Prior knowledge:
Layout: H1 10-21, E1 25-26, H2 27-37, H3 42-54, E2 58-61, E3 68-71, H4 75-91, H5 95-104, H6 110-122
Antiparallel strand pairs: 1-3, 2-3
Amino acid sequence: xxxxxxxxxxxxxxxxxxxxxxxxxxxxxxxxxxxxxxxxxxxxxxxxxxxxxxxxxxxxxxxxxxxxxxxxxxxxxxxxxxxxxxxxxxxxxxxxxxxxxxxxxxxxxxxxxxxxxxxxxxxxxxx
Length: 127
C-alpha cells in the first residue's frame, strides 16, 4: 500500500525543487535560492515552508538553534502522485485518452513517439 501524498501547489513545488536539489537547508538558504529565481518576499517563502510542514511533505529538524528543512517524499514520488492526480482530474483516469490527444494534436515529435514506443515495448505484461 502506497502512502497518500498531499497535493502540492505550484508555489510549493518551487520550494520542493530547492529542497530536492540539496537538503537539509535552513529557511534562509531556501529564501536565498528562491529570491534568485522569483520576486518572493522572505515571509512568503516561510509561509510556504510552514504549509509544507503542516501537510507533512517536508520535515523540520528542530535539534539545533536554526531549523533545517528536508523533503519527506522523493521528487519521483511527488511527480507520480501529481501525474496520477492530473490524469484522474482531466482525463477521468484514462491515460490512453491523454496519450491519444498528445499524439493526434502533434504535441509529440517523431523522436518522442519512437521513445514512447520503445518504453511500451519494454514494459512487462501485467498479470
